[in-house]
Specification:
The protein is an alpha/beta fold. It has one domain: Ribokinase (UDP-N-acetylmuramoyl-L-alanine:D-glutamate ligase). It has ten helices and 14 strands. The strands form three sheets. It has an eight-stranded mixed sheet with strand order 4-1-9-10-11-12-13-14, with helices on both faces. The longest helix has 16 residues. It is globular, with a radius of gyration of 18 Å.
Length: about 300
């Protein structure tokens, strides 16, 4: 693959401080589990933006943080990671989003609590003054953490832009349903797809039905990450499954793998790569990410991905 710098991307959505607890032994419910606790920047949109920046993309982040120590942490880390943070909204009316997750010893999330009420304040009214800053980008990424009027404003204001979207969670996936016809690419997982469509996404027949429904609603490309079952993808011209192999001994956390995958999809789109190369590149980005306990791995780079692809 030939790697090159890409045009600007604007990512709009959630930014959190992540608190991850990882157990030493199999998780026991309703009990105190010995383990480790790790605090780091997180959030789907923020993670995607950091990953894009590490891939050499000129990336702007639009999100909301509180005027508190967590907000300051996210702003500082984002700048250090190379993200354009000038358009992050600092609000006094709510605390910075916090995501509390418990992971098992294999790095898989077992349960989480997301305190993201501040995102409800990232409304169309707050986005309107950023019209030029957002519109100067060649591609938009948005997540379902955004309130409905913000989602509507984005897709209606920039109909000429390719829009990539992430369903985020089962609780928020339905927010994207009215706007599926405006999406170029949708990244989801089985549980979120089930919440969005209303039917199961488990067997091969289920997945075909899900893809048909999503395409019928206007989405051009679907990518569904399925944990140990790999990836299901579907476009108007191709459909299939990819095994995302990973040495379990190297897995520290799967929390940010999907965000790295989405960032890599964006990069590949900017490069104009065909689907096969896109899948290889995105799979390598996810593989690098799960080897780090943070949801955005500092080890992610074009050089590192190229090294993985050559193995």
């Amino acid at each position: 693959m030939n790697f090159s710098l890409s045009p600007r991307v604007c990512v709009i959505g959630g930014a959190n401080v992540d608190i991850h607890g990882v157990t030493y032994q199999p998780l026991r419910l309703r009990d105190s589990n010995p383990g480790t606790v790790h605090v780091c920047p997180g959030g789907v949109a923020r993670n995607v933006a950091e990953n894009l920046s590490r891939l050499g993309v000129d990336c702007r982040l639009v999100t909301a943080v509180g005027k508190d120590p967590h907000g300051k942490m996210l702003l500082t880390h984002g700048r250090e990671a190379g993200i354009d943070m000038r358009f992050v909204q600092e609000l006094e009316s709510a605390p910075t989003s916090t995501y509390l997750a418990v992971l098992d010893r294999c790095g898989d999330m077992q349960v989480a609590v997301a305190d993201m009420d501040i995102m409800d304040q990232l409304t169309a009214t707050r986005l309107e003054p950023l019209r030029n800053a957002i519109g100067e980008s060649s591609l938009l990424v948005m997540d379902a953490n955004l309130p409905d009027d913000a989602l509507a404003w984005l897709v209606n204001t920039f109909p000429e832009h390719d829009v990539f979207a992430d369903t985020v969670s089962t609780a928020k996936a339905m927010r994207l349903k009215p706007y599926l016809g405006t999406l170029h690419t949708l990244k989801t997982n089985p549980a979120e797809a089930e919440a969005l469509t209303g039917f199961e996404a488990r067997t091969p027949a289920d997945l075909d039905r899900t893809a048909d429904w999503i395409h019928a609603h206007g989405v051009r490309r679907l990518f569904m990450t399925r944990a140990e079952d790999g990836l299901f993808y579907s476009t108007h011209n191709d459909r299939g499954h990819v095994s995302l192999e990973q040495d379990e001994s190297h897995v520290r956390s799967t929390t940010g793998a999907g965000d790295a995958f989405l960032a890599a999809l964006v990069y590949a789109r900017l490069q104009g790569w065909p689907l096969e190369g896109t899948l290889q590149f995105a799979g390598a980005a996810a593989q690098l990410t799960v080897a780090d306990r943070s949801p955005s791995s500092p080890a992610l780079s074009l050089t590192a991905i190229e090294r993985v692809l050559k193995i």
